[in-house]
Specification:
single chain; about 260 residues; alpha+beta; Deoxyribonuclease I, Chain A; 6-stranded mixed beta sheet; about 25% strand; hydrolase; Endo/exonuclease/phosphatase; EC 3.1.11.2; metal ion binding
């Protein structure tokens, strides 16, 4: 079973890239972020024609998350992260798919830091940790996949010294991620590649992709019930080099059958 996360950076503008990648790799479950499309503009017909059922939480111009499942319909279990009824951002959606509970998230960027946006990021992280703790308490096999907008360690950023004051790398954010992992979640990619520099994002500027000046900010976290099934994890790096590509590359895990 292959589960992937992909920040598409505009699902309609990048639709040819998404459909090509789905056709070539056939992931079983896909978490999408940054749809940048209102609810009624999600390309459901094209996704369905590609063989995927879908649920999505859209938002005009910004944010937006979706879960796709090959050959079946995801069963939605939650729309929006609990803990703040006034939060209108479309950043979290959750579904049951083939015996797994899959949470798809797009954590706030938080820049500039310090500031109001950074404070919102930290509050959102607190809400995520609270919800994640609840999932673990239920004992359900779960995966939390998405764009976390955090580089957990120096290995996850091409020049750490240049990012010390950035909201993706500040100590408060890395500590929040470490606290989440400390609940019992497994960072799949880092677990299987503990000493490698592996990136999931390359900026459009300064030939970042060509220079491999990247960041690892897209993560798949596995609950203790799922972690023993982890067989492989990687990044479809070449997708970042396709024409009109997102600045993120799809990141994935493979799990052994139950």
């Amino acid at each position: 079973m292959r589960i992937a996360t992909f920040n598409v950076n505009g699902v309609n503008g990048r639709l040819p890239v998404l459909l090509r990648w789905l056709d070539e790799t056939e992931p079983d479950v896909v978490c999408l972020q940054e749809l940048k499309a209102p609810q009624d503009k999600f390309p459901h017909a094209a996704i369905e024609a590609a063989g995927y059922g879908a649920i999505w939480h859209g938002q005009k111009s910004w944010n937006g998350v979706a879960i796709l499942a090959r050959g079946c319909e995801p069963l939605e279990t939650r729309r929006g992260l609990p803990g703040d009824p006034d939060d209108s951002h479309s950043r979290y959606i959750e579904a049951a798919v083939d015996g797994l509970l899959v949470g798809c998230l797009y954590l706030p960027n938080g820049n500039p830091a310090p500031g109001a946006k950074f404070d919102y990021k930290l509050r959102w992280f607190e809400r995520l940790r609270a919800h994640a703790a609840g999932l673990l308490a239920q004992g359900a096999p779960a995966v939390l996949a998405g764009d976390y907008n955090v580089m957990p360690t120096d290995l996850d950023v091409y020049k750490p010294e240049r990012w010390l004051d950035d909201a993706l790398f500040r100590p408060e954010v890395r500590a929040a991620y470490a606290a989440l992992i400390g609940q019992g979640w497994t960072d799949a990619l880092r677990t299987l590649h503990p000493g490698e520099r592996i990136y999931t994002f390359w900026d459009y500027f300064r030939n970042a992709y060509g220079r491999d000046a990247g960041l690892r900010i897209d993560h798949l976290l596995l609950s203790p019930e799922v972690a023993p099934r982890l067989r492989a994890a990687g990044v479809d790096r070449d997708v970042r080099g396709w024409e009109k590509a997102s600045d993120h590359a799809p990141t994935w895990v493979e799990l052994t059958p139950r």
